[in-house]
Amino acid sequence: MAIGFISFPLLTRVLSVADYGMLSLTLQVAAMAVVLSKLGLQNSIQRFHQEYTAAPEAGSQQRFYSTLLLGAASAWFLDSVSV
C-alpha cells in the first residue's frame, strides 16, 4: 500500500494523461483476468472434497479429481487467451 501511495504522484508526473489512462485500463483488465481465472475453484475444492472422497459409489473420487484438473486447465487456457 505504501508503494502505491508513493508511486501515484510519480506516475502522474511522468506519464501523460493518455499513458496514465492506458496504464489504468491495463491494470483493470489484469484484475478482471485474475477474477475470471480463479472461477471460484478454490472454494469448490473446500466445499466438495469431503463429499466426493467419502462417497460410497465407485469412481466418485476419480470424478472429483478429473473435474478439478479439467477446471484448472480450462481456467488457465481462458486466462492465457484473454491476456
From the alpha-carbon coordinates, what is the Rg to the nearest angstrom?
A: 20 Å
Find the count of extended strands (DSSP E, 2+ residues).
Answer: 0
Helix and strand succession? Answer: HHHH
* Total helical elements: 4
**C-alpha end-to-end distance:** 25 Å
List the uncertain runs.
Answer: none
Overall pLDDT score: 79
Largest pleated sheet: none
Helix amount, in percent? Answer: over 70%
> What fraction strand?
under 5%
Overall SS class: mainly alpha
Q: Tell me the overall shape.
A: elongated
SSE order and pairing:
Elements: H1 2-14, H2 17-38, H3 41-53, H4 60-82
Helix pairs in contact: 2-4, 3-4
Can you walk me through this structure?
- The protein is mainly alpha-helical.
- Helices cover 86% and strands 0% of the residues.
- The protein has 4 helices and no strands.
- Helix 2 runs antiparallel to helix 4 and helix 3 packs antiparallel against helix 4.
- The longest helix has 23 residues, at 60-82.
- The chain is elongated and about 65 Å long.
- The model has no long low-confidence stretch (mean pLDDT 79).
In short:
The protein contains four helices and no strands. It has about 80 residues and is an all-alpha fold.
Keywords for this entry:
83 residues, mainly alpha
